[in-house]
Amino acid sequence: MNSVAGRSLDVDFFRGLVLIVIALDHVTGSVLSRFMLHTYAFCDSAEVFVFLGGYASAAAYCAVASHRGEQAAVWRFARRSAEIYRAYLFTALLMLLCGGMLALFDPNPAMLDMTEWRHFVTQPFDVLGDIVLFKRQPYLASVLPMYVAFALCVPLVVPLAQRSFSTALATSVLVWVLAPWLAFLVPVVHTQDWGFNPFAWQAMFVGGVLARLYPVRAEFARSRSARWLTAVALVAFVAFAVARLVVFKDPLPGVMKQQLSLVRIVDFAAMAWLVSVAVRAGWIRAIAARCTSVVTVGRTGLVCFVAGTVISVTVDAVSRHGTLHGARGLVVACAGDAATIAAVIGVALLWQRMAVRERGQRLGSHARQAVRRMLRA
Q1: According to the model, what pLDDT value does residue 205 have?
Q2: For residues 10 and 211, what is the distance between their CA atoms, to the nearest angstrom?
Q3: For the chain, what are the domain ranges?
Q4: Which of 144, 131, 69 is nearest to 96 (CA)?
Q5: What is the pLDDT of residue 325?
Q6: Closest-CA residue to 346 (of 320, 311, 318)
Q7: How far apart are CA 26 and CA 312, in angstroms?
Q8: In 3-state terms, what secondary structure has residue 214?
Q9: I need a labelling partner for 126 at 20 to 30 A (CA). Which of 44, 58, 179, 295 fits?
Q10: Are the C-beta atoms of 147 and 84 separated by less than 8 Å?
Q11: What does the pLDDT average to over 60-80?
């Protein structure tokens, strides 16, 4: 993967693309969402997001450990876990506020239940306490508690994977197999309502870690075995797409996503190999170089995810067009998609500009202090 300023341009592009897709997927009636992974595959953007999270975490851990030592890397991910936890609390509160706004202007019963607004109105302190303890995870905030745990586990997982690929893989597979029975350890009020069993989804995160630590060798990528693997992956991808489009047209059972079913893993693995071929060929890098705004979204991932939750709910409420049909309904849906994409990119660009300004102010302050010390000397 190509690195730009210490980061992977390919990974940042994919992360930005996935964050935009996640926002679109949670807008009812989105036109673009109909062309996303969940339409023609048994997996969706969640697998990509978690896999890339593992890949980026392994890269960050190794970079910090090589420059500042293992202890610094451990503290880096402890702080990262705390950052994600704060983002989770903030997102949960935003979802409650969105629920309150929906109750006033767009009383959608299903959405109100997902935001926990109904329970908050009757038992505010109990609900807030449950949110702090992860027992209630309002709507789009539900993926973040899993990342809190994953960030804490990075200092354990990465060194284990560095010592032994097979041990790390076998341990992850074992935990994935036992995940349905380990689910009781997750502190949630209604087990059937949460979308991600972290004991199952760690398999996707660890897969990303292993992909970063053990990249495909150049000699293997040019070998006949790699070409056969590409052919098999392509056949599998097409077969899954046909099955999803022709046979399994209805929404898939939620338990398949909750427990990260084997068919989702295999389907994702086939697509991941095909994408890796495109990355090695330089095609993704060429696209990313022309889509700098999407790359910026990927580089401000946590901020864009939190903002995207509010953007999704807001656009969904404003552009809801259940009574609109034909050309008018299509125009409203397309306008909602455009507004969602523009808002996510706008947040990323604004945040990047603020970060650059803050760094400039810090550098200016350090320079002034250095000049003062020189004058005193």
Answers
A1: 97
A2: 14
A3: 3-376
A4: 131
A5: 66
A6: 311
A7: 6
A8: coil
A9: 179
A10: yes
A11: 94
Asked if 73 and 155 count as a contact pair (C-beta separation under 8 A), the reply is yes
Q: Kindly list the distances between the CA atom of residue 344 and the CA atoms of 16, 22, 75, 107, 290, in Å, as whole numbers in the listed order.
A: 9, 11, 30, 25, 18
Q: State how far the Cα of 238 lies from the Cα of 107, in Å rounded to an integer.
A: 41
Q: Give dist(CA 217, CA 223) in Å, integer.
A: 10
Phi, psi of 7 (to 5 degrees): -120, 160
**Closest among 90, 98, 118, 127 to 26, alpha carbons compared:** 98
* Partners of 4 in beta bridges: 7
- CA nearest neighbour of 331 among 29, 98, 100: 29
Token output for 238: 């097409």
Q: ∠148-154-158 over CA atoms, to 5°?
A: 165
> Taking the C-alpha atoms of 356, 359, 365 and 369 in order, what is their torsion angle to the nearest 10 degrees?
-140
Is the distance from CB of 51 to CB of 272 less than 8 angstroms? yes
The Cα diameter of the chain in Å comes to 79
- pLDDT value of residue 166: 96
100-104, 182-186, 238-242, 311-315 — most confident range: 238-242
Number of neighbouring beta carbons within 10 Å of residue 240: 22
If one compares 330 and 277, the residue with the highest pLDDT of the two is 277
Statement: residue 162 has pLDDT above 60: yes
Per-residue pLDDT tens over the stretch 227-260: 999 999 999 999 999 999 998 878 777 788 889 9
Task: Enumerate the β-bridge partners of residue 3.
Answer: 8
> In three state form, how does the secondary structure of 2-64 look?
CEECCEEHHHHHHHHHHHHHHHHHCCCCCCHHHHCHHHHCCCCHHHHHHHHHHHHHHHHHHHH
What length is written for the chain? 377
* Residues 326, 343: Cα–Cα separation, whole Å: 26
Whether residue 370 is predicted with pLDDT greater than 70 in this model: the reply is no
Cross-strand partners of 7: 4
DSSP E strands: which ranges in the chain? 3-4, 7-8
Rounded distance between C-alpha atoms, residue 278 and residue 295, angstroms: 17
- CB neighbour class for 53 (10 Å; exposed up to 12, middle 13-18, buried from 19): buried
β-strand partners of 153: none
Structure tokens at 285: 């890098």
